[in-house]
Amino acid sequence: MFDETITAELEDIRGRYPVAKAALVPVLHVVQREQGWCNAEAQQWVAGFLDITAMEVFEVVTFYPMLYHAPRGKHLIHVCRTLSCDACGGQELWQHLKAKLGVERGGTTDDGRFTLRGAECLASCGTAPVILIDGERHENLSHDDVDKLLESAT
Ligand code: FES
Q1: How many CB atoms within 10 Å of residue 97?
Q2: What's the predicted TM-score (pTM) here?
Q3: Most buried residue, 10, 35, 99, 108, by most Cβ within 10 Å?
Q4: Using a 6 Å cutoff on CB, does residue 121 contact ligand 1?
Q5: Using one digit for the tens of pLDDT, what is the confidence trace for 72-91?
Q6: Which atom of ligand 1 lies nearest, measured to the CA of 82?
Q7: Domains of the chain by range and CATH?
Q8: How confident is the model at residue 66 (pLDDT cuts 50, 70, 90)?
Q9: Whether residue 79 has its Cβ less than 6 Å from ligand 1
């Protein structure tokens, strides 16, 4: 499924653990890095690679929000949905983003550019409201700020 370099990386990860199953999450991160998401074919491959069931892989892929079992957009937006941000404009920002992108929570825009997700506290409550775009934190955001960030995302 993967080339020699990636397979060697995965074998190295698997070898770090006394039980192959324990390597499941780091292996899935590599798979996701290479493919963008963990589709059913990849989950089946990982199951064989770690000698576990496909259901065990599916359970993990669908449990952790940072693992994706559906295609995602080119850019991933996480909007903090916790109290401090909500009290400082996060609720309105969330509604603004949903309307601007035309998607609901977890949705991907029709052009495949953005996937919108909620997140728990992003550890920057003093600079609320806060979002992540592709893992980069943006703080003290107005609606105009967010619009500019979306426009600048290539
Ligand atoms: S509540 Fe949003 S960063 Fe903490």
Answers
A1: 20
A2: 0.77
A3: 10
A4: yes
A5: 999 999 999 999 999 999 99
A6: 1
A7: 4-63 (1.10.10), 75-152 (3.40.30.10)
A8: confident
A9: no
